[in-house]
Every structure is written in structure tokens, then in C-alpha cells.
Amino acid sequence: MKLRQAEVSAVIIQDRFWQKHTKLVEEVIIPYQWQIMNDLLPGIRSSHCLENFKIAAGRSAGRFYGAVFQDTDIAKWLEAVGYTLAAHRNEKLEELADDVIDLIAAAQQPDGYMDTYFIIEEPGMKWKNLCEGHELYTAGHMIEAAVAYYKGTGKRKFLDCVIKLADLICKTFGPEKDKIHGYPGHQEIELALVKLDDLTGQKKYMDMAKYFLDIRGTGKNYFIEERKHPGYRNIFPELEDYDPLYSQSHKPVRQQETAEGHAVRAVYMYSAMADVAEKYKDDEMLSACRKLWDNIVEKRMYITGGIGSSGFMERFTTDYDLPNDCNYSETCASIGMAMFGIRMANITGESKYADVVELELYNNILAGIALDGRSFFYVNPLRVKPANCMEHTSREHVKAVRQKWFGVACCPPNIARTLASIGQYIYGVGDNEIYLHLYVSNTAELAFSGQQVELQVETEMPWAGKTKIKTRGIREKTDLNIRVPEYAENFKIYMDGKEQETAIINGYAKLSLQKDEDIVIAFGFRVRFMKANTEVGFNIGRTAIKRGPIVYCFEEKDNGRNLDSIFIDERGGAEEIYDEMLGGIVKILVRGKRMTDRKQELYCEYTPEFENVSCMAVPYACWNNRGEGEMAVWMNMIMDYQ
Questions:
Q1: Which residue among the candidates 389, 410, 411, 553 is catalytic per the annotation?
Q2: Would you say the C-alpha torsion 369, 375, 379, 385 has a positive or negative sign?
Q3: How buried is 596 (Cβ within 10 angstroms: 0-12 exposed, 13-18 middle, 19+ buried)?
Q4: Counts of helices then strands in the chain (DSSP H, E)
Q5: How many CA atoms lie within 13 A of 237 on its CB side?
Q6: CB neighbourhood size of 171 (10 A)
Q7: Among 186, 254, 416, 474, which is disulfide-ready with 137 (CB 3.0 to 4.6 Å)?
Q8: Spatial strand order in the sheet of 433-436
Q9: Considering only CA atoms, which of 31, 25, 11, 15 is closest in space to residue 84?
């Protein structure tokens, strides 16, 4: 089966929880990031992103500034703008974006080449440093942005620019003798080419995406051989001793079974593998996708959805190596995991993939941005002591407060484009069938098999499990498949006030509708005290709280300093309280004991003493919105099981 995602323009978000975030994109995040990319905010690290394009276009003089992939900041910004305009018209924002597109078009080279670093700094090295140069990665983000902008506005200028760029890539790379037999150091172009194929119907783009995957990791490693060429230079010092595992080029993609290397590169590649596997009915590649997914989710993913545990090289390490206070869990990696998951859900119709998409969106992704939309986490730890987040130590990548911007700022605009396109994650649409993957209040117009069906969804998620669905426009048999979340208890579906007997297939409750219906979905969920596999040694004797899709944490703001001295008593139960703080949340109160501070020497013999305490937990995504302080997801627990 293959379900397609609904277009952003077809889904109007009307959700109390998510609308505050989607509105933030247009009202705050896009304008804020626009100011940064134009270097207009004093005291914030320069982006120079648009200035690079002005230099490349001959409108300004100077040197390139920033990372080699600095162009992708404005690409992801434009993609977010495209999704925003698809939802509703904003003439001022559209004019702003059109001016940027004019600048990009002016910087584009006559042959279609589009990368300001190599245009300005190293024109003789185009396509000669695929390992570190990020040209194909940058091209991919430009293509994705142009597709989104075309869908949002109907304007072709940017799209025509990237078609010219994609055509250049197809002329430059491939199996033919006179072409480059290489592939991207940082995967992304594959995803973009799939989208361009879907939009234009030009199969050569899909074939190019497949080629990049087919050749990866075969024969002599392309990157190691490339690095031997005269004139090659290291752009990133940490890659001097290059390991093909880092770029998932250590073996052919169909033979890969464990998630290795740089986490963002990995999940972007796995997402493209899923696309290509479905398009070419490649069972071997789809089997690899399944194995890689299971390895991540079952052995290499944090309870918050974070992936890539190593602060060095932003990478996966080994099974169960999931430290809490020095992990990386890059926001972009979780975005990539959600991209991978929604593809697998739409290909297989299995709810386990959508379960993780939901987990990512509510937790690790949303933690990456402050509630005011003006500061960001690149790294998402599960334990923070602010004093320990020191420069020039193993925890210097961990920040105790969200940052206004970054020198390498891939995460902030990536969050913007993800929040702006949240409607794409809600549904899977096939021939006479609809899959509801996520519980988000919305109105959607979905076209298939000659029908134009409108769904009106009103939900109390993520705080309560009641959802109402109204269908309008059903004229022939239509299957509505409703995801049964992994945490749902006593799941029931009602039509006309009567409980329905439904088949649960791959985690979706199947309703076969012959006419329009008013449907009510009801399920419960409770506070769960979660435990980690005992192979995760960091969490032995610890517990974490999860309620529905939300993972919770404890902050110093509510519980005092030295959170490690607190022991949670699960036997005391949990009290759930809705509170308007932090934008409206359910907070959780639990009982426990605190080991009292004796102010003794560093090491000595003593009998610990405890005092009873009540502790408050808040959603992990909300932490650090009330000031700096300690935070912990995994807490010591009182153990009395014997």
C-alpha cells in the first residue's frame, strides 16, 4: 500500500495545543529569523546568510561567511514561508519571500549551479569535495523550499531555478562513463528529488535519487578515495581521520541493519530509502528500512524521542548507550525521525511508526524552541546541572538555557518548517481510504477516487482522549482507519451514540463508511512510571513519567536544587492537575523522599536521612521556559519490590 500525505493547504489546524505553535511560526519565528539572517539583531551571532547571496550575485563585495551550508538557513526559512502561505494568504510575507527568490535567482550560475560558498570562495572545487562540501545537501534544501513555495503560491520562479539546478545534477552524476560516480556526504538531495518527481512527473529525478542510494557504500569508498585527490582539503577538522560509518557509506544501504554515524544524515537517508523502496517496489530496501527503524526505536532512542547520543560527531554509538547528561539528541535528528516515521506509516499502515512520529513532535522536537519562539535548543539532554555545562569539557555542547541563535543554525529554521507543515503528518490518504495518524483538531478536504471528503476533527488531545470526527461528502464506500495509540486504554468508537465493533488492523481501528457519519472516539490514559531496559545502565534504579504522548521532567523551579537527592515513591500514585501556566498543561504531582544535606566531607561513612516531599513534573518540551535551573527526566525511585 502507499498512502500520500495531505497537502498543507488542505488541512486547517484548529487545535488548542498546536495552533499556538503554528501561529507562532508566522507571527514570531519567521520575522525573528528574517532579522537574524539579515544581521539586524545586535548581540546575536551574525548569520550573513543573505549577504552571501548578495556577494554571489555581484550586488555586494566581500568574503563568504559561515558554514559551507549557510545557504540552507534561508532555504528552510523559505520552505516555512511556503507552508505558511499555503495555509492562508499573507501578502507582506509573500513580497518579502519574492525578493529573496529574486536574489537567489540572481546568484544562480548560468548552468544552474547554486551554492554561494563555492561560487564565492572555491569556484574551481565544485563537486570535488562531496565528503564535506555539502553542495548536494544545500541543493536538496533549496529544491524542497521551492516545491513548498510553488505549492503555497503557485509562483514558478523559484521552482524553475531549482529545476535547472536538478537538471545540472542529473547531467553531472550518474552511472555513465563521463559522469561523477559519487554521492552526497550529507544526505538530503534524495528526499528533494523525490518531491520534485512527485510535483513534475519527471522520472529522471526519482531515478537520480535511487542512483545516489544504490551506489552508496559500494566498491572502494568514494569519500576515502576523494580525499586522496590533489588539492583536497579538510573543511571540518574533526573529519580528518575519516570513518565511512559517519556518513553511512560503510556498506551498501540495503545491507545496513544498525543505525550508524551522524544521526541527521542517517534518518534523512532512511527517509529517502523508504520513498525509493515504495516507488520501485524494492522489498530489500524496505526490509532494510524496517531493520534500521527497529534498531533505533528498540535500542538507540531516548524516551523523549531523541536520537544520536554522542556529543562528539553528533552520532549514534552502540546499543543501549543512552547517557542523560551529556547526550546530543539534536533537534534536527528528531525531525528526521518524524519524517522517516510518517513515510513508514504511509507505506505499511502500521501504527508503531505513527506512535513515534507523535512522540517526536510532542517531546524532543517541541523542546527545541522556547514558548516565545525566540530561542532554541540544538541539543536536548535529559539531565542538566547548569554549573556543569562548561566550555572545553565533555558537556560543553549541553546548554542550560535556549540560545538566541547558533553559528551552525540548522535547527531553528528546521523547527519552523516542521511546525508550519504539521498538517502533513495528520493523515494518510489512499484510494477510498483515510488513515488518521495524529489526533489534532483540524478541518481537512481530502480528494480521492472521485470523492471530495471533508473531515472535521475536534480533539482534547494531548491532555484527554476524547475526539469527535464529522465526515462530509462521502458518496461511496470509504475506509476510515483510526490509530489506536500504544498508551490508549479502553479504546472505543461510537456512531449515532452506539458503540461500534471494529477490527484493529496493524494498530488502526477500521471503520467502513457508506455515508457521512458523526463519530466519537474515546480512550483513557494514565500516568505511567516508565523503566529503561537494564542494559541502559544510566537508568537502573530510576523512573521516568509519561502520560499519553507526553514525557515529563522535573525542574529546580518546582522541586529545589540537587534533583539527584530525590527518590520518587511510585506507590504514592500521581495527581494530575491542569494548569494554565506554560501555555496550558497537565502537571503531575508525585510523592517522594529527599535525602537531607548533611554538609559532610566529600566521602565518609554515614546513615542517610530522608524527608518526605511532594514533587511536580511538567512536560519535557516546556523545560527552561521559566528560567535557568536543574532538570531531570529520569529520577531515583524508592525500590521495595522484595
A1: 410
A2: negative
A3: exposed
A4: 17, 23
A5: 0
A6: 13
A7: 186
A8: 4-5, 427-430, 433-436, 478-483, 508-513, 503-505
A9: 25
Return d(Cα 370, Cα 419) in angstroms, integer.
13
The pLDDT of residue 82: 97
Among candidate residues 523, 393, 419, 396, the one with its CA nearest the CA of residue 462: 523
The owner of cell 566521602 is 603
d(CA 399, CA 370): 13
Phi, psi of 478 (to 5 degrees): -135, 130
CB–CB of 339/526 below 8 Å? no
Residues 373 and 371: their CA atoms lie apart, in Å, by 6
First to last CA, the chain: 50
Identify whether 289 is a catalytic site residue: no
What is the per-residue pLDDT across 338-390, written as a single tens digit (0 to 9) for each? 999 999 999 999 999 999 999 999 999 999 999 999 999 999 999 999 999 99
- Under the banding of pLDDT at 50, 70 and 90, the label for residue 437 is very high
Task: Give every CB contact of residue 471 below 8 A, 6+ residues apart in sequence.
Answer: 453, 454, 455, 478, 480, 513, 516, 517, 519
Own/partner contacts of 203-207, CB < 8 Å, gap of 24 or more, are 204/170, 205/166, 205/170, 206/276, 206/279
Which residues, 6 or more positions from 80, have their beta carbon under 8 angstroms from its beta carbon?
A: 25, 29, 30, 413, 416, 417, 419, 420
Residues 6+ apart with CB under 8 A from 191: 140, 144, 209, 268, 271, 272, 275, 339
Judged against a pLDDT cut of 70, whether residue 559 lies above it is answered with yes
Pairing between β-strand 635-637 and β-strand 550-555 as defined by DSSP bridges:
unpaired
Judge whether 161 counts as a catalytic residue. no
Q: Among candidates 542, 438, 517, which has minimal Cα distance to 482?
A: 438
- Cβ atoms 476, 453 nearer than 8 A: no
Give the three cell numbers for residue 317.
Answer: 554509538
Q: Which of 7, 51, 132, 314 is catalytic?
A: 314
473-521 pLDDT, tens per residue? Answer: 999 999 999 999 999 999 999 998 999 999 999 999 999 999 999 999 9
Crossing angle (nearest 10°) for helices 411-420 and 16-24 = 130
Sign of CA dihedral 357, 362, 367, 368: positive
Q: Which residue has the cell 566529600?
A: 602
What SS3 state is found at 465? coil
pTM of the model: 0.97
Check: CB of residue 29 under 8 Å from CB of residue 404. no
Q: Which residue has the cell 473531515?
A: 455
pLDDT tens track for 160-213 = 999 999 999 999 999 999 999 999 999 999 999 999 999 999 999 999 999 999
